[in-house]
Amino acid sequence: MKYGARNKITAKVKSVKSGQVMSLVKFDVTGPAEMASVLTNESVEHLDLKTGDEVQLVIKAVHVLPVKE
């Protein structure tokens, strides 16, 4: 199956809660993941980011697309 999203994180379904129209599906992440962010040089300098620094990643996304192959 082909799909447009390129970032993939391996996960297991933790729970499924169904309503009248929509379902809430929760996932446990099971595989290692690498993520990337594009920042302005000014932001990198302001945060003083260096290789090896520990940071928290805040993910802002409109869709999470579960794919079962």
What does it look like?
A hairpin with a 4-residue loop joins strand 1 (11-18) and strand 2 (23-29). With 69 residues, the chain is α+β, with helices and mostly antiparallel strands. It is built from 1 helix and 2 strands; from the N terminus they run E-E-H. It has a two-stranded antiparallel sheet with strand order 1-2. The longest helix has 7 residues, at 41-47. It starts with 10 loop residues before the first strand and ends in a 22-residue tail after the last helix. The chain has one domain (7-69). Residues 2-68 form the Mop domain.
Class by alpha and beta content: alpha+beta
Give me the strand/helix succession: EEH
| Rg over alpha carbons | 16 Å
Number of domains: 1
Percent strand = 15-25%
Can you summarize the main beta sheet? 2 strands, antiparallel
The strand order across the widest sheet is: 1-2
Give unreliable regions as ranges. none
Q: In one word, what is the shape?
A: elongated
Q: Count up the helices.
A: 1
Query: Would you count the extended β strands for me?
Result: 2
Distance between the termini: 7 Å
The pLDDT mean sits at 78
Determine the fraction of residues in helical runs and give it as a percent range: 10-25%
Protein name: Molybdenum-binding protein
InterPro entries: Mo/tungstate-bd_C_term_dom, Mop_domain, Transp-assoc_OB_typ1
Pfam families: TOBE
Domain Mop: 2-68
Summarize the structure.
InterPro entries: Mo/tungstate-bd_C_term_dom (IPR008995), Mop_domain (IPR004606), Transp-assoc_OB_typ1 (IPR005116). The chain is 10% helix and 22% strand.
